[in-house]
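Researcher: Structure for this, please.
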Amino acid sequence: MCVVGINQAEDAAQVSGFMQTLGLDFPVLLDRDAAVSQLYRVRSLPTTFFVDRDGVIREIVIGGPMSQALLASKIESLLK
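Model: Predicted structure, token format:
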């Protein structure tokens, strides 16, 4: 399993500070001009995409925070 964050239109210093404040250590890619957000039609933050081993988006969860139980169930369904 891999977790990757994609930040929308903020600079690296802001993202780094946010990650440090929350104690997060997964990689975050910078979508500086929001092109990725437009491509995937992200209209609300956070939006979480669950992608299977073949790179197919299987679930999209809009909004947050996401409970640990919901997160675990989505991940479990990808591993089947």
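Researcher: Any notable elements?
Model: The beta strands are 5-8, 28-31, 47-51, 57-62. The mean pLDDT is 93.
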